Amino acid sequence: MAVRQPRTPARNGLTGRTDCDPGEAREFLEMYYAENPGAESNLAERWEKVQAEILAGGTYELTDAELTYGCRAAWRHSVRCVGRLRWQGMVVRDARHIRTAAEVYEQLVEHIDTGTNGGRIRSMITVFPADTAAGPLVRIWNEQAIRYAGWTSPDGVTGDPRYVGFTQLAESMGWRPQRHGRFEPLPLVIETATEDPQLFTLPAESILEVPISHPEYPWFADLGLRWHALPLITCMRMRLGGMNFPVAFNGFYLQDEIASRNLSDADRYNQVPIVAAGMGLDTSTNRSLWRERAVIELNRAVLHSFDGAGVTIADHHAEAENFMRFVEREERAGRCPHADWSWINPVPVPAQVPTFHRYYDTTEVNPNFYLDPDAAKRASGEPVDVLRHRHRRRRALRRLVRTARAAVS
Q1: Per-residue confidence (pLDDT) for residue 391, from 0 to 100
Q2: pTM over 0.85
Q3: Cys-Cys link to 191, which of 197, 241, 248, 324 (CB 3.0-4.6 A)?
C-alpha cells in the first residue's frame, strides 16, 4: 500500500506569528495514522480533540507517540542528511515541560552524556517547548553544543576561525576561559521567554574528544589535532504538526565532516598545507594534486583515530551504500526519497560512491528541520546588547498577546 505523502511542501520553512497551523496539524495527523495503523485512537476522534484544543488555546499538545513518530519522520525528510537509513531508531527525549535556562542546560548535559554513551554514539533528539505566536520559549545560541573557540592575534587565529565572533560575544557576557588554546570548548548561551541570555560551561568529563594520529605517519600526532565525538546540533527548529519546536539532535560523524571540512577548510583549521609539507609533497604546482593527497590522509587519520578510540564514526563509502538502501526502502513504501545531491555526496572522490550517480527530488516536506535564522545571527557573534534589546522587545510582545487573549476570553 502506498503511504500518503504530505500534500504541502515545507514552503514556509519556519512559519511564524501563530501558535499552530491547523492545516498542517491535520496533514500531520493524516500522515501519522496512515503510517501507524495500530494507533490507539482513529483519525476522526483525534482530529476532533485537536480542533477543540486549538479553538480553546490556539495550539494543541502532541501525544508521546505522535512526538516520537514526528521526530523520526523529520529526520527521514531531512534532505541534507545521508545517514537516514537509521531514522526509525532515533531516541526521542521529551523536554516540552522545560521553561528555565538552567533546566535547558541540564537537559543538554544529560543528552550529551547519554548520546555519547562512552563512544558508542546514539542517534538522539531532545525536544523543547514549542514556540508561541510571540516567539520562542527556548533558544540556544550555539550552532552545536560542542564547538571550539577562536581568538585573533597579529599572527592569525588561534582555535576555530568560524567561531571568533561567538567567542567575542561569550567573553563580552563574562566568559573567562583558563587558556586560549586551539581546542577550547565554547560555553553554551541559552535564553528563554522570561530570562535574559545566560552562559553555561559544559562539564569537561561530558566532552569526549579524540586525539588525531595516522596509521603510517608518526609525525601526525605531533600536529596536536583533536575533535569531539558528538555532533550535537542546537541551532535548528523542527516543524512538526503545524508547530515549531527548538531541538537538540545528533547522529554520529561522517569522517569527511571532520577531516575534509573542519580540519581542512582554509577558513577553519586549514591543515592541508601543513599535512602536505609533512608528507614532503610538491606544493609549487596544482598538478601534483598535493591538496587532494593531503585531504585523503587527513581522512585516513580521522578514521584511524576514532576507530582506535572506540568512538562511532561512519565512512563515506558505507554511508553512501546505506543511503541507497534507504532510497530503496522509501520507494518500496510508496514515499519519495527527498535529498539534496550536493549535500549527500562526500568531499573526497564523490564519483566513487553510488549516491553520486543519480539525482533526487529536493522538495522539503514536513515534518522537517530548519535553520533558525535568529540563532544563526547569534552563532555568528552579533553584539550582545543588540540581541538583548531584541529579546526584551519580544518579551513585551508576549505580554501584549497574553493580555489580548485574556480580554477575548
Answers
A1: 56
A2: yes
A3: 197
